[in-house]
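Lab manual, section 2.4: Encoding a predicted structure.

Procedure: take the sequence of the chain (251 residues), apply the prediction step described in section 2.3, and record the output as structure tokens. A sample record is shown.
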Amino acid sequence: MVNQKGGVGKTTSTINLAAALAEYGRRVLLVDFDPQGALSAGLGANPHELDLTVYNVLMDRKVNIRDAIQQTGVDGVDLLPANIDLSAAEVQLVNEVAREQVLDRALKSVEDDYDVVLIDCQPSLGLLTVNALTAAHGVIIPLICEFFALRAVALLVETIEKVQDRLNPRLQVDGVLATMYDARTLHSREVISRLVEAFGDKVFETVIKRSIKFADATVAAEPITSYAGNHIGADAYRRLAKELISRGGAP
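Recorded output:
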């Protein structure tokens, strides 16, 4: 899940897509790759009380990734948590050999344990995000339905193409996800039209509508699929999970 712009629904989408995929029988690992630790907090982990995080896995080869992975309250979903320690990794990795491939190397030992690994990236295009793109098969770009959000995507696509070219030829854009959509506004509808013009069938048919229920579910440290299972937001993420499966992004 990548977008260098913050506040576009990356973490919310990561948690709820994971929960929906788990409902369809997929075993999911969530990787919190943002030093703010919002994904970890959103699943009930206290970032300040974590002994082992993704930072330790990246920076100390003696740390076994399985020791850092936690079970969550969602059946079929595990978490590799993060906290503010991860912000130091960006600086420390600069001097590492094959510094862009550290996350890929770490995940290799558990990739057979899961059907899907979802990486929630920080809002930047720095070395951590490049690590995530190097480890990934596909990218989902959550995009808020506002015009200024469209302008940032060109830079992101350029970064993805560079990673494809130099580090990870298997990488592809699985889809662009329109979030915080308000059907009542012409503005939102126009942004969707522009998205389809730019990305064609890469735009997911599923659109995530703006709703306070997502914030309520976050406060409860639950995905919306369990917090309000009949809500239109929960149904939307189930449809998104089906779309991703049909596109081959979650086999």
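Check your result against the sample. The CA atoms of residues 95 and 226 lie 43 Å apart.
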